[in-house]
């Protein structure tokens, strides 16, 4: 373990010195590496690396493509929860990596995407539902401390409900949409924040992003994006409009942010996961709740 903050040069030197073979990181760190560029790692011998993996939040397609071009290996997204005790959906070795996808269910752990009202498995490719797993397995959670009712509520028809939404394509690959309570309902259309954030990261000026719903008297909710910029870019009205139109063309008018707020940093947990609920609570004037895991500047 390297007990230090982010330092791209130090990280690469550490991998070279100790001949690291499996590198497990987080999307936030990978995006910071991308900001440092592809020239820096070429100064180090990173040939010991066999697998690059990512965890903590969904990994955007751009990061997968960048790592393939830079290291000759793609960062592989891995999905699991504290409750599962192990990786349950992932881009495991030997599997073709589709940039932006979570991959396939881990062998031996059945998974499905369920219709949110009936909790029946969805069979139409591309339809968004709740990720569910057929439990148990050896590392699966036995219960919540002093909350048996909350534990039982996580199960329907023999499925464990993760609380996350995704779609499954024709090849069985899972595509993350967001937490069930993160999904934005704008004018009756459900929009996943991760889809918007991934598109935002493809804009050359955007370093990091978070998308949340904000109240709207007509559409119930509209999309608001929080954006940090790469060095050399300054926030102004022209850039905001440019980014909005970029998303409109790349995704759709429904997914286009109606407002972009440029910020110096985004609220994150100490493990690097963006805390969207903090941003959403600010927009809705709601209590932020427990922020004990919030990273301090």
Task: Give an overview of the whole structure.
With 297 residues, the protein is an alpha+beta fold. It folds into three domains: 1-79, Rossmann fold (3-Layer(aba) Sandwich), CATH 3.40.50.980; 104-177, Luciferase, Domain 3 (Luciferase, domain 3), CATH 2.30.38.10; 184-284, ANL, C-terminal domain (GMP Synthetase, Chain A, domain 3). Helix content is 23%, strand content 26%. A hairpin with a 2-residue loop joins strand 8 and strand 9 (159-168). It is globular.
In short:
The chain is of the alpha+beta class and 297 residues long. The protein has a five-stranded mixed beta sheet with strand order 1-2-3-4-5. The chain has helices at 8-18, 27-36, 61-71, 148-152, 193-201, 237-250, 276-284; strands spanning 22-25, 51-54, 75-79, 89-90, 104-105, 111-114, 129-134, 155-156, 159-168, 174-179, 184-186, 189-191, 206-216, 220-229, 259-262.
Task: Let me know the number of strands.
Answer: 15
Helix and strand sequence? HEHEHEEEEEHEEEEEHEEHEH
Query: Mean of the pLDDT scores?
Result: 90
How are the strands of the largest sheet arranged?
Answer: 1-2-3-4-5
- Looking at CATH, the homologous superfamily of the largest domain is ANL, C-terminal domain
**Total domain modules:** 3
Structural class: alpha+beta
| CATH architecture heading of the largest domain | 2-Layer Sandwich
Can you give the helix content as a percent range?
10-25%
Oligomer: single chain
Strand content: 25-35%
Query: What is the general shape?
Result: globular
Alpha plus pi helix count: 7
CATH topology type of the largest domain: GMP Synthetase, Chain A, domain 3
- The radius of gyration is 20 Å
- For the record, give the distance between the C-alpha atoms at the N and C termini, rounded to a whole number: 22 Å
Largest sheet: 5 strands, mixed
Poorly predicted residue ranges: none
What CATH first level of the largest domain would be assigned?
A: Alpha Beta
